[in-house]
Specification:
Helix content is 43%, strand content 12%. By secondary structure, the chain is α+β, with helices and mostly antiparallel strands. The protein has 24 helices and 21 strands. It catalyses: a 1-acyl-sn-glycero-3-phosphocholine + H2O = sn-glycerol 3-phosphocholine + a fatty acid + H(+).
Length: 686
C-alpha cells in the first residue's frame, strides 16, 4: 500500500494520468472550436437581451446521416489529426507565455509571504475610498438608498460597512445569487456594499459578473438564459451516448469555468486576460472603489505539522513526526482523541481576492499572481505566469473533492427522511466513519494540487481551526483548550531542545467551503475589516430546516460571541396585494416572516454586528416552484432550461424586492444612526 501511495503521489504519475485523460478527451470526445461557428444557412442558438429572446431555436436535426463509411472514416482521421496538432501546440503556447512579460508582468517579480492579520494596504485604501463614494462626498449612495431627508449630509465616518455573501448550492445558487444582485442593483443597495463574497456556486456568479458581464447585471442574466437555451450542452453528449465520464478536478474546474465564462455574443471569445484574477483590481475599477471588492472562499484540511529539524530526511519520516507531535502538543493530542470519537474534520479557511490569497486562520498571505509558485522559507524560488482563474475558481467550487463523509451528509439533506434510500446512505456514511476510510485512502476524487506557499514555516501560535460539526453554540477555543495552548507556548519558549512545529505538507489542497460552513462569513469577518452588517443569501438545500440557522451560530461560536435574533424588531413584511391565487397567498403566509431574519452579536472588541439572513424560499409570485424540492433544482444538476433559470431568478429577486429589502434598509439605517450618534458624542466631548 505504501508503494501504491508513493506512486499515486509522484509527479510522473500525475503527469501521465493528466496527459492520458486530456488526450482521450481531445481525441474522442471534444468538439473542435470551429464547430462553434454554424454554417450561414443555419439558425444560431437563442440569445437574450433584457430577458427577451432575439432569435428562435431550431429543433435538432434527427435525420440519419447518409454519408458513406469512407467519408466517416476520413472525418474521424481528420479530427484526430487536428486533436494531435492541438496537443502539440500546448507546449509551444506554454513556452511563449513563459516569456510574455506584456501579458504577464509578474514574470519579472518575486513574491514573498506576508505575515500578520492586517489588511493589504490597497484594501485599506479601497475601504476609505468606498466609504467616501457611498457618502455625500461621493455619489451619495446611502442617502438615495435609505431615502434620507433632503438636507441630510452623510459623513464618510458614519457609513455602515456592508458585506454580501452567497452560499453554495450549485447552479441553483448561481442563478439565485444573480437574482439577488439584480434586486440589489435596482434598489441602490448594491452601491452601498463594500465586499461581496461567495462559496461554491455563488463564486461562479461573482466571477461572471466581474468578467464577461462587465458589471452589468442585465448582461449577466441574458448570458445565463442564452447558455441554458443551447442544445449542445457539454453534458448532453454524455447523457445521450451513455459514455462513462472522466472525472478529474482540474479538468472539472477548467471545463466548468470556460463553459460558463464563454461569452455568447457574436464576437465573444475567451482570452488569457479573462482568467487573470489579479488584474481585475484595475480593470473593474475596484482600485477607485467603483465596485464592491470580490472575495472567493475556500477551505483546506488542517495540515500536518512536524517537530523535527527542517531537513529533507524529516519530510521522509512524516509518520514518525506525527507521533512526536502527538506527544509534545497536548492540545493537538486532546483534539485528535476527540476526533476519533466524533470523526470531526478540521478545516482552515482561505480567501481569494484580486490582491492576495491566504488564510485568516494563519494570518499569512501571498500575492494572487504568485499562487502556484514554489516557496521556500516564505520566498518564491521561481517565476511563472499567473495561474489561470479557472483553476482557482474550480478549487472554490470543488464539492466533489471534499471529504467523502461531508459529501454524503450533504446528500442526506436532499433525500426524504425515513425512506429506504436515506437509511442506506446513512448506513454507508456510518460505515465509512467507523472504518476510517478517508484516513486510509481519502476521497477517490482528488482536490486540486498547488505548491504550499507556507511549507516550512512555523505554525502560528494562535492558529485557528474549525469544524463542520458543533454540538452547541460554544466557541471552538474553550477555556481548557486555551490553557493548553498557553502551556504549549511556555514550553516552547523556555526550552532549547523542543523545536516549534512547522508546516510539513508540501501541497495545498483547497476545497469547496461548503464542507465547513456553507456561507463565506468566516472570510469576511476578519476584525480588521470591521464589517457592520453581513447580508447572507442562502440557497442551500436545507434552508427550510434548523440546520441552516445553526450554521450562523457555528460561525459566531468560532469567533467567540453569541447571536441573538432580532427579527421582530426590524422585519415587518407586508403581503403582496397583487397575488390573486389562493395557492400563492397560502405560500406567502407560510414564509412571510422568514424571508429576512436578523441576528445581532457583539464581538470581543465591543463592535456590534448584524447578520441579515435571506434564504431562497418559495413565494406567492411563483407558488408552484420550491427551490429546495424541485427535481431540476438540485445542487448536482448541470443542465437547465431557460424556463427553469427564469424560475430561480424570479423567485430570488421577488423575495428581496417584496419582502427582505425593507428589513435590510431598517438595519442599515439603525447602524448608520448609531455610528453618527457615537461620532457626534465624541466630537462634543472633545
Amino acid at each position: 500500500m505504501v508503494i501504491l501511495t508513493s506512486i499515486r503521489k509522484s509527479p510522473a504519475y500525475l503527469y501521465a494520468k493528466t496527459y492520458c485523460l486530456c488526450a482521450l478527451v481531445s481525441l474522442v470526445q471534444a468538439t473542435p472550436i470551429s464547430s462553434r461557428f454554424r454554417p450561414a444557412n443555419q439558425t444560431t442558438p437563442t440569445r437574450f437581451r433584457n430577458g427577451k429572446a432575439l432569435t428562435c431555436r431550431i429543433a435538432p436535426d434527427n435525420e440519419p446521416n447518409k454519408a458513406s463509411l469512407s467519408n466517416k472514416t476520413t472525418r474521424i482521421i481528420d479530427r484526430w489529426y487536428t486533436r494531435v496538432a492541438d496537443l502539440a501546440s500546448v507546449k509551444t503556447s506554454l513556452k511563449r507565455d513563459g516569456t510574455d512579460t506584456a501579458t504577464y508582468p509578474e514574470l519579472q517579480w518575486d513574491a514573498k509571504v506576508r505575515y500578520g492579520s492586517s489588511l493589504h494596504p490597497k484594501e485599506q485604501e479601497f475601504i476609505h475610498l468606498r466609504k467616501v463614494r457611498i457618502s455625500s462626498e461621493g455619489k451619495n449612495s446611502l442617502h438615495h438608498c435609505l431615502c434620507l431627508p433632503r438636507d441630510e449630509i452623510v459623513d464618510p465616518r458614519d457609513v455602515p460597512l456592508l458585506s454580501l455573501g452567497g452560499s453554495g448550492g450549485g447552479y441553483r445558487v448561481m442563478y439565485g445569487f444573480a437574482g439577488f444582485m439584480a434586486a440589489a442593483k435596482k434598489s441602490g443597495l448594491w452601491d452601498c456594499i463594500t465586499w461581496t463574497a461567495g462559496v461554491s456556486g455563488s463564486c461562479w456568479t461573482i466571477a461572471a459578473y466581474y468578467t464577461i458581464a462587465k458589471h452589468d447585471i442585465s448582461k449577466l442574466v441574458d448570458h445565463y438564459m442564452t447558455v441554458a437555451s443551447e442544445l449542445a450542452h457539454p453534458m448532453m453528449s454524455k447523457a445521450q451516448k451513455s459514455i462513462i465520464g472522466l472525472s478529474v478536478m482540474d479538468l472539472y474546474s477548467t471545463l466548468t469555468a470556460t463553459y460558463q465564462l464563454l461569452s455568447r455574443e457574436p464576437k465573444g471569445r475567451l482570452s488569457r486576460a479573462t482568467f487573470q484574477w489579479s488584474k481585475l483590481w484595475q480593470r473593474s475599477g475596484i482600485d477607485r472603489a467603483l465596485e464592491p471588492m470580490p472575495i472567493l472562499a475556500a477551505v483546506r484540511r488542517v495540515p500536518r505539522y512536524s517537530y523535527e529539524p527542517k531537513t529533507i530526511s524529516a519530510k521522509a519520516t512524516a509518520i514518525q513526526n506525527d507521533n512526536i507531535a502527538r506527544n509534545m502538543d497536548p492540545m493537538r493530542n486532546g483534539s485528535e482523541n476527540k476526533s476519533k470519537a466524533s470523526s470531526k474534520k478540521m478545516f482552515q479557511y482561505f480567501e481569494i481576492s484580486p490582491l492576495e490569497i491566504g488564510s485568516p486562520d494563519l494570518s499569512r498571505y501571498v500575492p494572487t499572481w504568485s499562487w502556484g509558485r514554489t516557496f521556500v522559507s516564505g520566498h518564491s524560488v521561481d517565476r511563472r505566469p499567473e495561474q489561470s482563474f479557472s483553476l482557482l475558481l474550480g478549487q472554490c467550487t470543488s464539492a466533489p473533492a471534499g471529504p467523502l463523509t461531508e459529501c454524503i451528509k450533504a446528500l442526506l439533506v436532499s433525500i426524504p427522511k425515513d425512506t429506504v434510500m436515506a437509511r442506506l446512505v446513512a448506513m454507508l456514511n456510518r460505515f465509512l466513519q467507523s472504518k476510517r476510510f478517508e484516513g486510509f485512502w481519502g476521497n477517490p476524487i482528488r482536490a486540486g494540487h498547488d505548491p504550499n506557499p507556507f511549507y516550512g514555516l512555523e505554525k502560528p501560535v494562535m492558529a485557528r481551526e474549525h469544524t463542520s460539526e458543533h454540538s452547541s453554540y460554544r466557541s471552538q477555543a474553550a477555556e481548557p483548550e486555551v490553557a493548553n495552548r498557553r502551556t504549549l507556548v511556555t514550553m516552547t519558549a523556555s526550552s532549547d531542545v523542543n523545536l516549534p512545529p512547522w508546516e510539513a505538507q508540501g501541497r495545498t489542497r483547497l476545497m469547496d467551503c461548503g464542507m465547513a460552513n456553507n456561507l463565506p462569513n468566516h472570510a469576511l469577518a476578519r476584525p480588521e475589516r470591521g464589517v457592520d452588517i453581513f447580508i447572507s443569501f442562502d440557497s442551500s438545500s436545507d434552508v427550510q430546516t434548523g440546520a441552516a440557522v445553526q450554521r450562523l451560530h457555528d460561525f459566531a461560536a468560532d469567533f467567540d460571541f453569541e447571536l441573538q435574533e432580532k427579527t421582530e424588531v426590524f422585519h415587518s413584511p407586508r403581503g403582496n396585494v397583487g397575488l390573486a391565487s389562493d395557492h400563492g397567498l397560502e405560500v406567502e403566509s407560510r414564509y412571510l416572516n422568514q424571508y429576512a431574519r436578523v441576528f445581532r452579536g457583539t464581538r470581543e472588541s465591543g463592535r456590534t454586528i448584524y447578520i441579515i439572513y435571506c434564504p431562497l424560499l418559495p413565494n406567492g409570485i411563483n407558488p408552484n416552484f420550491n427551490p429546495s424540492t424541485a427535481s431540476f433544482s438540485t445542487s448536482t444538476n448541470l443542465m437547465w432550461t431557460p424556463d427553469q433559470v427564469q424560475s430561480v431568478l424570479t423567485t430570488a429577486e421577488a423575495n428581496i424586492t417584496n419582502y427582505a429589502l425593507d428589513t435590510i434598509k431598517r438595519v442599515v439605517r439603525k447602524v448608520y444612526e448609531d455610528k453618527k450618534a457615537q461620532r457626534q458624542a465624541l466630537e462634543t466631548i472633545g
